[in-house]
Amino acid sequence: MEIDAPSSSPRKAPGRCARSGFLFRFKFFDGWAAIRAFSFLCVLLPLLMLVGGLFSVSSEYWEYVRDHLLRAYFTETLLVMAGAGTFACFLGVPLAWVLSMYDFHGKRFFEVLLVLPLAIPPYIAAYTYEGLLGYTGIVQSFFRNHFDLHLTRLTTDIPAQVWAIWVFGVTLFPYVYILTRAFLRHQSAAIFENALLLGGGKARLFLRVGLPLLWPSAAAGVILVCLEVLNDFGVSSYYGLNTFTTAIFTTWFGMGDVNTAIKLALILLALVFVVLLVRKAAHNVRRYHIVSSREKRLMTRRVDAIAQAGIILLCASVCLVGFIAPILQMLYWLRLSWDGAFTGELGRALLYTLGIAGGATLAVMIAATGTANANRLVKSRFATLFSQGATLGYAIPSAVLAIGIISFFVSADKFLSAVFPFSPEKFFSMSGIMLFFAYSVRFFTIGYQTVEAGFAKIGMVYSEASRTLGRDVTATFFRVDFPLVRYALISGAALVFIDILKELPLGLLLRPFNTETLGTMTYHFANNEALEETALPSLCIVLLGAAFILIMQIWEKKETAHVSGN
Fold first, then answer.
1. Has this prediction a pTM greater than 0.90?
2. Residues pairing with 297 in the sheet
3. How far apart are CA 39 and CA 47, in angstroms?
4. Partners of residue 302 on adjacent β-strands
5. Spatial distance between the Cα atoms of 435 and 428, rounded to a whole number of angstroms
6. For 250-401, where are the E strands, in sequence order?
């Protein structure tokens, strides 16, 4: 018996969506997969160029560094990294605990203000604290003029490593604070209520119950602090520390020994991978989460007047040293240098910084969105490899990444000149393309993780429903997925833009000649002991970063309200 299929068969009506088979799937996902593969290659190529330098001929200077300086580089780097991570944890965990567990006057104000130190780059904080606490600074001048107290030991007897740890701690503790507080939001109130019913006081509740629960998330925040310390050049250079990053700069620019700089970069990269292994071990530790919607969420409790005063004093003190004091010092410098502050050089640096930061942020978010969407559409081992490889950029210190990028683009210039003899000489290495590429590679991870988190929240239900109704993958993304993840995209773009504004080593190494960013201009003023001249470019960086942090928090609250409303 022969049966003819009706013309309105559901297999043919949807058109492209109804067809199946390998070629159809390849055609569907080729564009998204291409973005994912391109993101992976952009990170892989500079690393391959670095590994190639490992087999270069060793110089006499490398033998001297290996025999006499390498131990000092390890000691100084590990000391500052461990101290900064410990100090950031000492600040971030108690702050996250009191703001999550207790209700007090000014809580909403402190919730916003405690995140703002992230807007201050550590090297700018180092300059401002030198201005505050130096011999001619406000603090020493006040005590010397009013109480005849000479506090010169404040800056002469305290080791430079301690000052570096202080600067990193007060500017980077929000990493620990944010991750720890986010973890507490998803904990069950029953855990802490049962501990109180069994006779534990508030202090014992924190030490015996809170800390064991919080240490994995706190450890993740500490790892981020450690990665920032390993990436730093401005603070280490200003205080004269012998870290790996300063050693790479000195070897490269001071000695002109590229091969030794590459070897030092590879050692620093190996140290980063050790830190990442520690992070993975902390991530895989046993954790406790709410597994039932019937669990009671953590609720804040009112505290008595004495405890409330102590909490307010703690929060206000951290806000003062982490954000308010540096801002006041910058404003004081600005008043002193007001007449010559607004120059054409500053305007060009501001426009260049905004232009390249905005362009790199757009490129990062496009690549991150494409990669995240490709991974959720087609899950495979290759997809996991691509996504994990593309997110290595943030873990690679800027000095290491810059060496690999320069090696790659110099080779690209040689190839371009050989193939096209009439092409501009050093087209890539003498333009802003290298800096744009470096920003995009290094901060891709931030954009990817925020977009991936946004996709994880919405799941695949709406996408599959749209596909069932006949829309293809791309149309589904723009009509269904994009409106649902727009808050995550805005938050990711804000974070990427802030980090690009704060970035110093890439700007120093890869910017075109006769071109300054706000960060490099600030560094050069400070390096020439013209601290007052750093005020306006520093304020531009900090205020732009603070504005984007506030925007991000506003959008986050809107997203939370939107989800709760649904």
1. no
2. 188
3. 13
4. 103
5. 10
6. 301-302
502 Cβ contact list (under 8 Å, min separation 6): 119, 121, 519, 541, 545
pLDDT of residue 286 exceeding 70, the answer is no
Quote the CA–CA distance of 34 and 88 in Å, as a whole number: 40
CA distance 476 to 495: 26
**Nearest-angstrom CA–CA distance, 41 and 505:** 23
Higher-confidence residue of 456 and 18: namely 456
Question: Which top CATH class is 79-242+302-336?
Answer: mainly alpha
Rounded Cα gap, residues 158 and 245, in angstroms? 23
Tokens found for residue 168: 């990193």
b/e per residue 304-343 (b: at least 16 CB within 10 A): eeeebeebbeebeebbebbbebbbebbebbbeebeeebee
The candidate with the shortest Cα–Cα distance to 387, out of 363, 366, 367, 365, is 367
Mean pLDDT in residue range 260-275: 84
The residues spanned by each domain of the chain are 79-242+302-336
Q: Which tokens sit at 262? A: 């590459």
Angle at which helix 70-101 crosses helix 160-185, to 10 degrees, equals 40
Is residue 559 scored above 80 in pLDDT?
Answer: no
Phi-psi region of 29 (alpha: psi -120 to 50; beta: other; left: phi over 0): alpha
